[in-house]
Amino acid sequence: MADVKVPVLGESITEATVGEWLKNPGDPVKVDEPIASLETDKVSVEVPSTVAGIMGEQLAKVGDTVEVGAVIATITEGGAAASPASAASPAAAPAPTAPAAVASYGSSSPAQGQAPGSDGAAALSPSVRRAVLETGVDPSSVQGTGRDGRLTKDDVMSAAQNKPAAAPAAAPAPAAAPAAAGGRKEERVRMTRLRQTVAKRLKEAQNTAAMLTTFNDVDMTAVIEARTKYKDLFEKKHGVRLGFMGFFVKAAVQALRDIPSVNASIEGDEIVYHDYADISVAVSAPNGLVVPVIRDAQDLSVSGIEKTIGDFGKRAKDGTLKMDEMRGGTFTISNGGVFGSLMSTPIINPPQSAVLGLHRIEERPVVRNGQVVVRPMMYLALSYDHRLIDGREAVTFLVALKNAIEDPTRLLIDL
């Protein structure tokens, strides 16, 4: 019998929350195969098995807080017959339809909806469970594209869009208190540890910093033309797509060098200035936005920046970002435009003193040389801590960024 313990989670992190069980009692387990997912303040961490055998008792439930070094499960080494016997048990029923296949969040019962022969590896995350409930998709009929073949929310939503009109379903089992037609429903879902931490930090930022947001707009014509002209050659040479973030990170680094207070932070009664630019970039993950850090962005080329962001995005979707990659950062860029945002007032990520918000590109009439013309425009928003950054510095930063984007040659000749 082998104990499964909570691994070391990183500097200053002493506990985590059990997010989900990836293996259930009786499931076969391989060496280094993940059996559980833990949620820390920053990322989800998978707990691997140190031995091969059969999953034994789960000593913690989903939602429980566990400390580093605590035993959360046992594994019987060897004993390969246990799982087939369990699978052959008359009590084992065929995979139910989608709504019944989803265990409620916080339940310690085995996750259902796995494809036959999946060895239980396709446990559903909370976001996937919710998507299954909302769409009525049978998870056992969908091929997962996530890590180890797990279902992602995108898999479920795609299957829902392609699902043919459903035939009249058999009468469901009577519920204890069936809702009247058109009745309203409620669902309670436990906040993840990450979401609780995000909520706490954002509220602390509002309570501590003297936040102010300054706006500007930028004509994206030159960057769009450069991207259109060189994107194929860029991808062929560097193996990564040329996006807009590479331009904005380079322009931000240049503007931060000229306006160092935007790249600084307050510690007690001291101002800490940084001679480097560690740029935090918000990327989408199944459980929400995460903010990994591009270290020493001032030393990277556009291709290096795009490769780093692409790698972050892929690993955020797979849930394999490391906690060290989320720490630090001297300045944040958040691109709400990919979700269609026209304008926003982003909140500072402490201890940073500023965050840049990018928004959607939209054709609007503008005046050029006395003529009204249509140009692809984007609103920029800089939220900053007014205790450290004056309005003049904020505006100067945005103007420097705007000039670099509207004339990318400035990035090459260091203007």
Description:
A hairpin with a 2-residue loop joins strand 10 (265-267) and strand 11. The chain is globular. The chain is of the alpha+beta class. The chain folds into three domains: 1-92, OB fold (Dihydrolipoamide Acetyltransferase, E2P) (Beta Barrel), CATH 2.40.50.100; 94-163, no CATH class; 210-413, Chloramphenicol acetyltransferase-like domain (Chloramphenicol Acetyltransferase, 2-Layer Sandwich), CATH 3.30.559. The strands form five sheets. Strands 9, 12, 15, 16, 17, 18 and 19 form a seven-stranded mixed β-sheet that branches. It has a four-stranded antiparallel β-sheet with strand order 1-8-6-3, with no helix packed on it. Strands 5-4-2-7 form a four-stranded antiparallel β-sheet, with no helix packed on it. The chain has ten helices and 19 strands.
